[in-house]
Write a structure and sequence with these properties.
two-stranded antiparallel sheet; 3-stranded antiparallel β-sheet; alpha+beta
């Protein structure tokens, strides 16, 4: 005997949750329609891995690099456009996906994209607050 909640969970796994989002009015097609980014949700494991990768322990203090964390979230969870596309990196003379993101997106657009990925991933509060809480 299973509950309706159990049935719902079984029918709706989160490993392939995606969404299309408008990031900025700057991105428009030739007819003026907004161009949407396709993003995917972040899993618990990926969140933990990224948090650990971008936290440095120095003595008794830990230091979190939010900028690098945000770039990793954007690069790893944006399906369209691909920030890892080798031809695009080469075309703009970028060596890394991080460098490419910084060449093609404004700071506020990166933040908006991170916020949209957070929302899709089930976070209703600021990711920095979650990371700070997880460190303690």
């Amino acid at each position: 005997m299973s509950s309706s909640l159990q049935d719902f969970l079984n029918a709706n796994p989160v490993d392939n949750l995606t969404e299309e989002v408008v990031v900025s009015p700057r991105f428009k097609d030739q007819d003026g329609n907004p161009l949407k980014f396709r993003i995917k949700a972040m899993t618990n494991k990926v969140f933990d891995d990224l948090r650990k990768r971008h936290t440095r322990v120095k003595g008794r203090k830990s230091e979190f690099d939010a900028g690098a964390f945000n770039l990793s979230v954007v690069i790893g969870h944006t399906l369209e456009p691909s920030f890892k596309d080798a031809a695009s990196l080469q075309k703009l003379g970028c060596d890394t996906p991080e460098e490419y993101v910084e060449r093609v997106l404004l700071a506020g657009e990166v933040t908006t994209l991170v916020n949209e990925i957070q929302k899709l991933s089930g976070f209703d509060i600021d990711m920095a607050d979650l990371v700070e809480e997880a460190k303690n």
